[in-house]
């Protein structure tokens, strides 16, 4: 089998060399055809150029009905090469079968050199078939003189039309260009390489005057035509020779090989079958490999998706941990503020407890005052009878009564101030109650936040153990805060305080009612009461007002301005009359003796004086 393949390869190489030889001969013939010498130029005046409209008008008169296509070709030539200084109008005929010949004649038109007859002929070689007769306009560029037009112009031409057509190509000799524009009638197809020789005489007369050049050219043309005909014949006969060579080569190979054609065919079929089986195995292995690659690609895609999900989960956990850390920091700050608020609240509770203890003592005093008020009512009934007898004396003491009324009005004003102070105390107690309620709500919110933080910390305990430790510390701190409350529930302390505040408010209301009743009784009986009854009633009112002022001072605590006002008060009462300031100082002294507290100091730096006034 290897020997057969080698012989086939040698036969193909032989045919390839033969084809290359034929093509080389064609190339040499074309080179010989275009190797003609050019004539020298004559030094004459260069013709003037023509404009586009002039050339188009001449073409219209020459070509007639086909002038539209001719005008398009002329415009294209003008756009490519510029203005010509002459043009040729004439007819030509030609034909080709691989090699071709063209003959024509016409008239050269110039502006300043006149009109001249022109004849042309020339061969061509190439893939060109057909024949034609054509009208031709040749645009002449860069023509220095009329005599320089004569010579050989080489170029490449192509045609493709049936019955009729328009064509244009370019021929060149030295610096002179010829652009033939043809309207052909016939059938022509192909591309060829050739030249046109332009003369001012017909071809026969030109040959007689040309000496030996004409016969040499004709001989060269005949030789080229014969060579081309031989090549054409060789190309026609080559397929038969090729088939004969193949047949003889096959017979020679069969004779040299000890196997018959059937055996060779069987061996070839066997090899083909083995190759098919091997190819099938490779195909199956390739499919398995592709399936494996597909599965691996799917697994890789799944793993990428899983990695993306894990990255997103890690990022979400990091964000959650950051949020939890921020919340823990905020919770620590809030706990610090809550701890400070609890300390302040504890101090306020201690102050309030002291005030409530003082109010409890005042309640006891209020009971004694009620008893005294009952006795006073009895005395008033007794004095009413005496008042009837002492009306005359009442007229004499009218001036004194006016003075006492003024003092009573002043005492009423002070009483109203004390009542206003008590009202301010109620407002302050209400604000304290709201603050305690807000702290209770804040503590409940903190407990809920702690539970939520503990739940979140349990979810992230595998990644952030430090967070669990901080939550543990936070729980210990909350327990410590709870322990600092001395084992008491904040709700119980606030409830006891609310009860005491409500009791104080009720006592204040009852005392206000009593003062109002005593004032009304004083107004009703002031006209008929005697000096002794008025003095007793005035003493009762003063004592009650002193009790209320003292109670307000205790409720307001150390920041109360009442001690300073009492210290600065001017005791302008007549001799034998105890003023409200003196009564308040006596109550304060009694309270200090009971508690062992130092005397209060006013704004002027002096201790408030206390007068021992008996009830």
UniProtKB/TrEMBL annotation:
Region Disordered, residue ranges: 589-615
Keyword Membrane: yes
Source taxon at top rank: Eukaryota
Keyword terms, alphabetized: Coiled coil, Membrane, Transmembrane, Transmembrane helix
Alphabetized InterPro entries for the sequence: EipA-like
Coiled-coil region: 261-288, 328-379, 408-528
Transmembrane spans: 219-242
Protein name, as recorded: Uncharacterized protein
Native source organism of the sequence: Effrenium voratum
């Amino acid at each position: 089998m290897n020997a057969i393949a080698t012989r086939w390869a040698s036969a193909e190489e032989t045919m390839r060399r033969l084809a290359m030889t034929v093509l080389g001969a064609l190339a040499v013939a074309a080179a010989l055809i275009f190797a003609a010498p050019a004539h020298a130029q004559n030094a004459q005046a260069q013709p003037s150029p023509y404009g586009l409209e002039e050339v188009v008008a001449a073409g219209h008169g020459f070509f007639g009905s086909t002038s539209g296509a001719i005008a398009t070709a002329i415009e294209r030539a003008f756009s490519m090469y510029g203005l010509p200084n002459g043009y040729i109008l004439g007819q030509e005929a030609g034909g080709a079968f691989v090699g071709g010949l063209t003959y024509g004649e016409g008239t050269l038109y110039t502006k300043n050199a006149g009109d001249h007859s022109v004849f042309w002929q020339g061969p061509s070689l190439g893939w060109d078939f057909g024949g034609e007769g054509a009208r031709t306009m040749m645009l002449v560029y860069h023509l220095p003189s009329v005599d320089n037009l004569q010579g050989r112009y080489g170029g490449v031409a192509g045609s493709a039309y049936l019955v009729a057509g328009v064509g244009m190509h370019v021929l060149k000799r030295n610096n002179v260009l010829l652009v033939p524009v043809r309207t052909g009638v016939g059938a022509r197809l192909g591309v060829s390489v050739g030249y046109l020789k332009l003369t001012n005489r017909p071809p026969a007369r030109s040959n007689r005057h040309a000496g030996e050049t004409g016969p040499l050219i004709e001989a060269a043309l005949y030789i080229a035509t014969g060579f081309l005909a031989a090549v054409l014949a060789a190309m026609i006969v080559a397929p038969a020779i090729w088939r004969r060579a193949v047949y003889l080569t096959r017979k020679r190979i069969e004779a040299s090989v000890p196997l018959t054609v059937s055996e060779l065919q069987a061996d070839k079929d066997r090899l083909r079958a083995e190759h098919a089986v091997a190819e099938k195995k490779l195909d199956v292995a390739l499919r398995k490999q592709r399936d494996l690659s597909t599965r691996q690609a799917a697994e890789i895609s799944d793993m990428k998706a899983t990695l993306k999900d894990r990255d997103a989960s890690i990022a979400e956990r990091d964000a959650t941990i950051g949020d939890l850390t921020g919340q823990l920091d905020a919770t620590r700050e809030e706990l610090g503020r809550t701890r400070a608020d609890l300390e302040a609240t504890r101090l306020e509770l201690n102050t309030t407890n002291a005030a409530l203890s003082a109010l409890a003592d005042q309640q006891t005093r209020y009971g004694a005052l009620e008893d005294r008020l009952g006795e006073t009512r009895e005395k008033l009934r007794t004095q009413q009878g005496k008042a009837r007898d002492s009306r005359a004396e009442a007229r004499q003491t009218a001036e004194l009564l006016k003075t006492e009324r003024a003092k009573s009005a002043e005492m009423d004003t002070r009483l109203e101030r004390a009542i206003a102070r008590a009202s301010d105390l109620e407002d302050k107690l209400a604000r304290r109650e709201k603050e305690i309620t807000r702290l209770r709500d804040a503590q409940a919110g903190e407990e809920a936040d702690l539970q939520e933080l503990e739940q979140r910390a349990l979810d992230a305990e595998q990644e952030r153990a430090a967070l669990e430790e901080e939550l543990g510390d936070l729980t210990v701190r909350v327990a410590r805060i709870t322990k600092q409350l001395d084992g008491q529930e904040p709700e119980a302390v606030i409830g006891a305080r609310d009860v005491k505040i409500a009791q104080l408010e009720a006592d204040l209301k009852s005392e206000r009612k009593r003062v109002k009743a005593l004032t009304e009784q004083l107004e009703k009986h002031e006209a008929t009461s005697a000096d002794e009854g008025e003095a007793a009633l005035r003493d009762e009112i003063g004592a009650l007002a002193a009790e209320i002022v003292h109670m307000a001072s205790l409720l307001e605590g150390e920041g109360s301005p009442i001690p300073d006002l009492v210290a600065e008060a001017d005791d302008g009462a007549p001799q034998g009359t105890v003023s409200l300031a003196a009564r308040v100082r006596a109550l304060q002294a009694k309270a200090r003796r009971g508690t062992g507290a130092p005397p209060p100091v006013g704004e002027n730096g002096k201790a408030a004086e206390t007068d021992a006034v008996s009830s």
